[in-house]
């Protein structure tokens, strides 16, 4: 089986994939690294699986992943949360002599305190923390990169700062998915391996321009006593002001029947795009 993740080896996605595999019975897994989230998504076919970051404790949801999930025909089969911290490597004698900084786009929002100490610097955004490191290693004097803290021990740059995330307590949640579309009927028959589940989904009203639409959507879950852990609105991109809602429902095994009955009920009125139903 192939597991597609953001590469090269050493990204947090790679670490999350390895942590996930420790909890699973898969054998002979081949790691398949790609430089962007979109290429990771495109690479997952058949029975193979992929992993993408969904949410960071400091910087919130990963918009690129949500935008992709909104239109994706995938089944999420699980998730993995890992601690995240960063280090700074620089080819300079001090912070003030750094001219150019390589930083992954989601990492930037997690290292704001460090960045505020480097005014006037040229920031080059990358798609992966290990690409930031690669670019730094091939770079010139005055260059710096923010890289995973786990890579710091292997580096010997002239100037290095450890643990540069805005706070030490920081984590990112990743989702693991297959390429086949999540089907309500198939997933309703799934046997959970733990007592808890999560069900991520998008709900798209035919129009947002009506009083009480969100209230009505939330009412279905409230009436069924189903707990929502996420509610986000995302532009559908069809028209300015048209949004869909990304929702994560969590519950216990004894609520399996009620969640599927609720989703079927909602599907007669709204566009319900289920993304998965998995043990948590
Ligand atoms: O570049 C990496 O190391 C990644 O795995 C990506 C990613 C992300 O986009 O959220 C993962 C964890 C951190 O939040 C920062 C970057």
From TrEMBL:
Catalysis: reaction(s): prephenate + H(+) = 3-phenylpyruvate + CO2 + H2O
Residues carrying the site annotation Essential for prephenate dehydratase activity: 172
EC number(s) per entry: 4.2.1.51
ACT domain mapped to chain residues: 202-277
Entry superkingdom: Bacteria
InterPro entries on file: ACT-like_dom_sf (IPR045865), ACT_dom (IPR002912), Chor_mutase/pphenate_deHydtase (IPR008242), Preph_deHydtase (IPR001086)
GO CC term (a single one): cytoplasm
PROSITE patterns associated with the record: ACT, PREPHENATE_DEHYDR_3
BP term (GO), one: L-phenylalanine biosynthetic process
Keywords annotated in UniProt: Amino-acid biosynthesis, Aromatic amino acid biosynthesis, Lyase, Phenylalanine biosynthesis
Source organism of the structure: Lentilactobacillus hilgardii (strain ATCC 8290 / DSM 20176 / CCUG 30140 / JCM 1155 / KCTC 3500 / NBRC 15886 / NCIMB 8040 / NRRL B-1843 / 9)
The organism's taxonomic lineage, starting at the top: Bacteria, Bacillati, Bacillota, Bacilli, Lactobacillales
Keyword Lyase: yes
Domain Prephenate dehydratase: 2-179
Record-level Gene Ontology MF annotations: prephenate dehydratase activity
Pathway in which the depicted protein is active: Amino-acid biosynthesis; L-phenylalanine biosynthesis; phenylpyruvate from prephenate: step 1/1
Record SUPFAM superfamilies: ACT-like, Periplasmic binding protein-like II
Name under which the protein is recorded: Prephenate dehydratase
